[in-house]
């Protein structure tokens, strides 16, 4: 095939190779990001599913309709059952109220139990629950009942043998506020206990797991059947915050990746433009031989298709490899195993390759077909090409890709605007630097003079290079700054000061005892907050049901009972945004205030224990939820809560060394519930680590694409450079002078880029410190060294490498060619 | 009458638009060239001879008069039609050879046939390359060949399409005198063997003299001698 025959040889010439590498980089970057984020997303969904112990949980106060379970089985879903209730447990030593779960053999469908044979042990994973006749008790319940393994415990009419200490029951963390010490029995034994009688407070759960599509089908089937009091819970709802963060992270990573794609696109356009320049006459010659425009269009399309296939296949493999390697490296950081990537995500990479090729190559290649055959006789024959069309095609292509990545117009528009502003600023600074360099070195006798003159002479092309490398270096420096300073500070803060256990249901007279227990073992403990449960029923005098007729639309604040407190100040982890913290009114968290559309002075009516009270909003707080301090959507005036007997909440930071002592000490407070949030913290850290690692990877791709742009644009000017070099050398300049001129030209370009990058990166870091991390402003002297040094080295190496022919080819050969 | 002529022009003129208004490059050119005739177009640089060659070979659309190439009126054809006509009747030899660097000598000679979709051109191509004395260089790429050798490949390529009319633009212009003589010998002998019409633009008086006749262009007008 003629198209392939012609293309095959072209691979040896750099342009087609540049084109393919650029295509591979684009497809590889986007595929890598797409696949990796997909795995990340799924891993968090699995994490959330683990908290539910299933992919779906249907909960009801009535026994679950058997048909629902049959339907689930019909739809190839796995099912399990759990019935939870409070009941007294009896031992020889006494009796104790416990929260008991009766579970079927298949339970849990996701994650595992943690159980131990040691009292207050840390637990071993197991999937098999208690057999019939067995009971597993939490260490606290066992110590309250004063029983050890092998002892007998009665629940209702049935007697059970204690066979394990329950450390964690995966599906149980949802109900922390009703926590009594826990126990698990086999569902088959439930009837024997005879404790479930009409009027008992029992919650029935049907757990489901299986293929995503089957689950979605089931959701559709069951949703209309869900009446009041029946809830369908999904991991997505559960992990909504994390999910949102990840999807935002995906947009962010893809937008960063867009830079690699855009640069690759520019490299493709540059390579195409040189390719076109070199092939115009060839196409004209073919036209003289009678090749019709149709025939040449077909020929070009075949060639582009071949290039696309090669680029897409290698790019996809590269993307696949990259996400695989990252997945491997980060496996240890993850709370759950990373699921395998979804092949469907590959289309994103393929689409990127296709759009890039169409936007950046096709308009240029079209020139080949439009070339007049007259060019063979008169190479300067007027060419009917529209340069504007080529730029517009590139921009539209980039915009389209960004739209695909982010699914909206807002982010791409903001990014286009930002890039335009950055481009203007950097070009302005660059122009001044180039002019300064030129003005200081008049003449053409030293490498310095020739090199700096070259920078100024190819002003537009060099300004573009400067822009590209400044942005790359700036991103690298910002990332370095964030990782080296900001995140590591934040990470250091987390383990040292951040509480990892919440304490609930603490009675007034227990507060002092628990505080002194913590102090005894040097365990950090945060402030105590009194807490009652209440519900927002009216906003600005209008009933919540009236404002949100559909339950699905209800914001967090009104959807369920919330925890309320009163306090003298905002406490750690939050600060007042507007208004004054006052004993006359409500302090509300800023995000929920936005969700229910209230502001200072608006009134909220709350139902607390059946008593309705209305208060104005006197302050709006911003809460740092990641501080893990007890925090509340709403803080009430003390007067509002004084008539209710409050429980107290606090949080402590336990280490593996202090935890056993604290657990043992807490056995004295059997009614107090503890919630371990350490796992959640690990998740947050994992996200931060993953994101910064992923960003580094994306940056590497951006740098590669930037290098390719430099190489491609040097190639565009290569003929001109070769001619200049030849003339210089013919006129008596030695190789050393020509080399020096190249070193100065690219060294200065890299140095200038590095200086501007350091400046802009420092400004960005200061902004980040103030706005995002809320830290004191510190300068980063290392950045000021790294920018110019790294910039000079990288750009010089790439530049001199790409133009090495100027030094290698003997001048006589060059002169003959011109 | 027109069918017996390889090329006829009637009051051929060409005007181009420039920023300073229309510029007439050719005016009132009347030419009749018979089948098998060899004609040299001579003239000073900038006289319009290359433009004339481009127009009569159907590489560009003229603005005035008419051109009949093998009996076909060129003004009636669009680029696709002219391309078809070129494929059918026309061969070219250029001053700068214009071989495709990505193709070997053999592939370059096969190209005109391949562009027509004919894939059985290999033997004809080898035969032609043997005729021009390059049978030992079949798989060499243009940059591995000397200027004279490249022009020989180009001549083989021009004859490969069974052209009825061969247009040559300064075919020896880029060659030394020894190679120039070799190439012109080759061109005329192949032309005779194949009975093609040869229309050549040249500065070289000796080369022009070898043609059956020559026409001179001066300031865009014909001065037949």
From TrEMBL, chain A:
Its annotated compartments are: Cell membrane
| Membrane disposition | Multi-pass membrane protein
Keyword list (alphabetical) reads:
Cell membrane, Membrane, Transmembrane, Transmembrane helix
Major location, coarse class?
membrane
What is the name listed in the Swiss-Prot or TrEMBL entry for this protein? Putative ABC transport system permease protein
Q: What residue stretches are annotated with the ABC3 transporter permease C-terminal domain? A: 256-369, 698-811
Matching InterPro entries, A to Z?
ABC3_permease_C, Membrane_comp_ABC_pdt
Q: Gene Ontology cellular component?
A: plasma membrane
Stretches that traverse the bilayer: 252-271, 304-326, 346-366, 387-408, 414-434, 463-482, 694-716, 737-770, 782-807
UniProtKB/TrEMBL annotation, chain B:
What are the entry keywords?
ATP-binding, Nucleotide-binding, Transport
A GO cellular component term found in this entry reads: transmembrane transporter complex
Q: Which InterPro entries match?
A: AAA+_ATPase, ABC_transporter-like_ATP-bd, ABC_transporter-like_CS, MacB-like_ATP-bd, P-loop_NTPase
Spell out the protein name for this chain: Putative ABC transport system ATP-binding protein
Entry keyword annotation includes Nucleotide-binding: yes
Q: Which family does it belong to?
A: Belongs to the ABC transporter superfamily. Macrolide exporter (TC 3.A.1.122) family.
Give the GO molecular function terms.
ATP binding; ATP hydrolysis activity; transmembrane transporter activity
Q: Which SUPFAM superfamilies match?
A: P-loop containing nucleoside triphosphate hydrolases
The organism is: Marinomonas balearica
List each copy of the ABC transporter domain by range.
Answer: 7-225
> From which domain of life does this come?
Bacteria
UniProt xrefs under PROSITE patterns? ABC_TRANSPORTER_1, ABC_TRANSPORTER_2
Q: Which Gene3D superfamilies match?
A: P-loop containing nucleotide triphosphate hydrolases
């Amino acid at each position: 095939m003629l198209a392939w025959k012609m293309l095959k040889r072209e691979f040896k010439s750099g342009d087609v190779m540049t084109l393919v590498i650029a295509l591979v980089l684009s497809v590889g970057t986007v595929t890598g990001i797409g696949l990796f984020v997909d795995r990340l997303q799924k891993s968090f969904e699995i994490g959330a599913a683990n908290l539910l112990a299933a992919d779906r949980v249907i909960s009801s106060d009535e026994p679950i309709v058997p048909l629902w379970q049959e339907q689930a089985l019909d739809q190839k879903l796995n099912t399990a059952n759990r019935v939870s209730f409070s009941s007294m447990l009896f031992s020889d030593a006494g009796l104790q109220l416990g929260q008991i779960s009766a579970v079927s053999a298949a339970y849990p469908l996701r994650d595992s139990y943690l159980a131990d044979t040691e009292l207050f042990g840390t637990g071993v994973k197991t999937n098999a629950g208690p057999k019939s006749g067995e009971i597993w008790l939490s260490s606290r319940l066992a110590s309250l009942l004063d029983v050890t393994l092998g002892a007998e415990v009665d629940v209702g009419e049935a007697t059970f043998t204690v066979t394990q200490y329950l450390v964690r029951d995966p599906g149980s963390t949802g109900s922390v506020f009703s926590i009594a010490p826990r126990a698990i029995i086999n569902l088959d034994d439930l009837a024997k206990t005879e404790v479930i009688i009409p009027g008992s407070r029992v919650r029935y759960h049907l757990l489901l797991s299986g293929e995503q599509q089957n689950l979605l089908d089931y959701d559709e089937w069951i949703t209309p059947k869900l009446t009041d009091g029946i809830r369908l819970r999904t991991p997505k709802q559960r992990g909504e915050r994390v999910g949102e963060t990840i999807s935002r992270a995906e947009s962010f990573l893809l937008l960063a990746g867009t830079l690699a794609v855009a640069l690759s696109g520019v490299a493709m356009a540059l390579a195409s433009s040189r390719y076109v320049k070199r092939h115009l006459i060839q196409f004209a010659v073919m036209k003289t031989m009678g090749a019709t425009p149709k025939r040449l269009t077909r020929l070009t399309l075949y060639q582009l298709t071949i290039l696309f296939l090669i680029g897409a296949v290698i790019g996809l493999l590269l993307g696949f490899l990259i996400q695989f390697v990252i997945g491997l490296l980060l496996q240890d950081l993850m709370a759950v195993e990373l699921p395998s990537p979804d092949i469907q995500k590959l289309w994103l990479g393929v689409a990127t390759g296709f759009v890039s090729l169409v936007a950046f190559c096709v308009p240029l290649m079209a020139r080949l077909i439009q070339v007049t055959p007259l060019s063979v006789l008169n190479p300067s024959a007027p060419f009917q090409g529209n340069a504007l069309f080529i730029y517009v095609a590139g921009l539209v292509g980039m915009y389209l890709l960004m739209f695909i990545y982010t699914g909206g117009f807002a982010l791409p528009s903001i990014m286009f605007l930002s890039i335009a502003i950055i481009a203007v600023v950097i070009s302005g600074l660059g122009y001044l630097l180039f002019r300064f360099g030129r003005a200081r070195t008049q003449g053409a006798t030293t490498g310095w003079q020739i090199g700096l003159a070259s920078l100024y002479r190819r002003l537009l092309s060099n300004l573009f290079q400067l822009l590209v490398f400044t942005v790359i270096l700036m991103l690298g420096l910002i990332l370095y700054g964030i990782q080296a300073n900001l995140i590591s500070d934040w990470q250091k803060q987390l383990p040292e000061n951040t509480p990892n256990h919440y304490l609930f249901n603490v009675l007034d007279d227990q507060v002092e005892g628990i505080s002194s227990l913590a102090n005894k073992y040097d365990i950090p403990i945060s402030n105590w907050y009194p807490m009652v449960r209440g519900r927002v029923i009216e906003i600005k005098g209008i009933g919540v049901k009236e404002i949100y007729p559909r339950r699905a639309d209800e914001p967090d604040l009104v959807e369920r009972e919330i925890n309320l407190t009163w306090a003298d100040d905002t406490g750690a982890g939050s600060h007042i945004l507007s208004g004054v913290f006052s004993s006359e009114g409500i302090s509300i968290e800023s995000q929920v205030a936005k969700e229910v559309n209230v502001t200072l002075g608006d009134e909220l009516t709350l139902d607390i224990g059946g008593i309705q009270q209305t208060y104005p909003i006197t302050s709006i707080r911003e809460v740092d939820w990641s501080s893990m301090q007890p925090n509340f959507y709403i803080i009430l005036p003390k007067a509002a809560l004084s008539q209710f007997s409050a429980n107290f909440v606090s949080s402590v930071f336990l280490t593996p060394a202090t935890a056993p002592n604290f657990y043992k000490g807490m056995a004295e407070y059997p009614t107090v519930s503890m919630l371990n949030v350490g796992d959640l913290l690990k998740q947050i850290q994992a996200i931060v680590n993953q994101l910064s690692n992923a960003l580094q990877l994306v940056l590497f791709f951006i740098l590669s694409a930037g290098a390719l742009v430099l190489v491609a644009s040097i190639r565009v000017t290569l003929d001109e450079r070769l001619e200049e070099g030849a003339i210089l050398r013919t006129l008596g300049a030695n190789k050393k002078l020509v080399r020096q001129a190249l070193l100065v030209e690219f060294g200065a370009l890299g140095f200038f880029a590095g200086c501007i990058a350091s400046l802009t990166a420092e400004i960005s870091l200061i902004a980040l410190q103030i706005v995002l991390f809320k830290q004191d402003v510190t300068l980063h002297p290392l950045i000021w060294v790294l920018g110019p040094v790294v910039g000079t080295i990288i750009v010089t190496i790439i530049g001199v490498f790409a133009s090495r022919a100027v030094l290698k080819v003997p001048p006589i050969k060059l002169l003959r060619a011109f | 009458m027109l069918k017996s002529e390889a090329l006829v022009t009637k009051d051929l003129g060409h005007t181009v638009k420039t920023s300073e208004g229309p510029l007439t490059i050719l005016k009132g050119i009347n030419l009749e060239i018979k089948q098998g005739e060899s004609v040299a177009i001579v003239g000073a640089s900038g006289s319009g001879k290359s433009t004339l060659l481009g127009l009569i070979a159907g590489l560009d659309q003229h603005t005035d008069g008419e051109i009949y190439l093998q009996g076909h009126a060129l003004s009636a054809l669009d680029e696709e039609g002219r391309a078809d006509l070129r494929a059918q009747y026309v061969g070219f030899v250029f001053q700068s050879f214009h071989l495709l660097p990505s193709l070997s000598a053999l592939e370059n000679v096969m190209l005109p046939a391949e562009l027509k979709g004919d894939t059985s051109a290999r033997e004809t191509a080898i035969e032609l390359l043997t005729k021009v004395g390059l049978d030992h260089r079949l798989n060499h790429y243009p940059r591995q060949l000397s200027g004279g050798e490249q022009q020989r490949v180009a001549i083989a390529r021009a004859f490969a399409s069974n052209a009825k009319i061969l247009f040559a633009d300064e075919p020896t212009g880029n060659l030394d005198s020894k190679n120039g003589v070799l190439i012109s010998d080759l061109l005329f002998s192949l032309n005779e063997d194949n009975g093609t019409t040869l229309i050549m633009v040249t500065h070289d008086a000796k080369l022009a003299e070898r043609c059956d006749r020559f026409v001179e262009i001066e300031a865009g007008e014909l001065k037949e001698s």
